[in-house]
Amino acid sequence: MNATIRLALAASMLMAGASHAQDTLSIAMLIPGKIDDNGFMEAGYNGLLKIEKQFGAEVAYIDQVQPEQDKLEEALRALAQKTPDMVIAHGGQNNEAAKTVAAEFPEIPFVVVQGGVTGPNLSSYEVLQEHSAWLGGAAAGLLTQSGVVGHISGIRVPPGLKGRGGFYNGLMHTRPDAKFLTIFAGNQDDTDLAARVAKAETDQGADIIFTMLNAGRQGATDAMREAGAKQIGNVIDWTKVAPDVFIASAIADVSIPSVQAVQDLADGTWKPGTIKHIGLENPEAVSLSLSDAVPAEIRSRIDTLREQIVRGEIAVSTEYSGPELEM
Less Cβ around it within 10 Å: N or C end of the chain? Predict the structure, then answer.
């Protein structure tokens, strides 16, 4: 298996034949990327650490698995074979693998974070990052000077597609005449690739770019700093990390779904066959952070749009059928 199994506790349940202490939960997680990517995968790992601390759980994980179904299935089987109380697959790229492996281990609850699949012992928990992405697009429309706004992501997975669509539709809400540049470059972690793509978009006039990247983000940030363009980040509050470049960040705390799933398991309320959504109504999970440079009137406008989404007065569309850049 092209992955690393790490023991998060000395007495991890991944040890062959290990027995669990009475009432001690054992939770296993597949994190396909790097746990220190400053992005989506690290947030998943942080969720696992919260589970360990909050529930006193025995936790273990496999990370750095290529997003190919056979490899994801192999990793999930390795976790499930140690009979944990729950297996969590972090990321929508695990959808099909989780469906396959969950069916092979019908006694174990499976959860996909940011997933869209269900089964007799399978549920999905999804932070609606398209909500904060929509607000990010609305902010970009209010802030752009050039009228050209970009988007960069890596692999084409459902949450990324929905985030892109949400951002685009937010942009169209406030700046319907804006030109939109978008690309899924094929890799979340390649800094050189991210830099080339960001330069391609700034060369076409983009002065604000929404990036849905992991370890590769630094490449885009460096290129945008050089070009004088502003970035809208995702997952965490990037305006606190690089305030000279980030004008906003579409926060979607994807550490929360795994913790919620384990809480439901502990409470006896976890249900298979369901998809649980967490949106702007929970500001700890989903919000748009704006840098101090954003004028008060734009902040007020974004607050109003947020309230309209929560009240159901604005429906967040995730559809996008326009052109994409080619590299």
Answer: C
Say whether both 144 and 290 belong to one domain.
yes
Q: How far apart are CA 220 and CA 7, in angstroms?
A: 33
| DSSP string for residues in 54-103 | HH--EEEEEE---S-HHHHHHHHHHHHTT--SEEEEESGGGHHHHHHHHH
| 5-61 pLDDT tens trace | 444 333 333 333 344 445 799 999 999 999 998 888 999 999 999 999 999 999 999
Strands 246-252 and 286-290, sheet pairing: antiparallel
Q: In terms of domains, do 303 and 189 share one?
A: yes
Question: Tokens 């913790």 identify what position?
Answer: 259
pTM of the predicted model as reported, rounded to 2 decimal places: 0.78
Task: Determine the Cα–Cα distance for residues 222 and 194; give it in Å rounded to an integer.
Answer: 10
Whole-number pLDDT of residue 71:
98
Nearest to 227 by CA among 250, 204, 193: 204
Are residues 159 and 80 located together in one domain of the fold? Answer: no
Phi then psi dihedrals of residue 12, to 5 deg: -55, 150
Domain of 149, CATH number, reads 3.40.50.2300
- Angle (CA) 254-97-47 rounded to 5° is 20
Determine the structural domain holding residue 59 and report its residue range.
4-128+254-278
* Tens-place pLDDT, residues 69-93: 999 999 999 999 999 999 999 999 9
User: What is the model's pLDDT at position 5?
Assistant: 45
Q: Residue 219: inside a domain, yes or no?
A: yes
Nearest residue to 213 (alpha-carbon basis) of 239, 200, 240, 232: 232
Domain total of the chain: 2
Per-residue tokens: 291 = 């840098």
20/53 same-domain check: yes
CA distance 284 to 197: 31
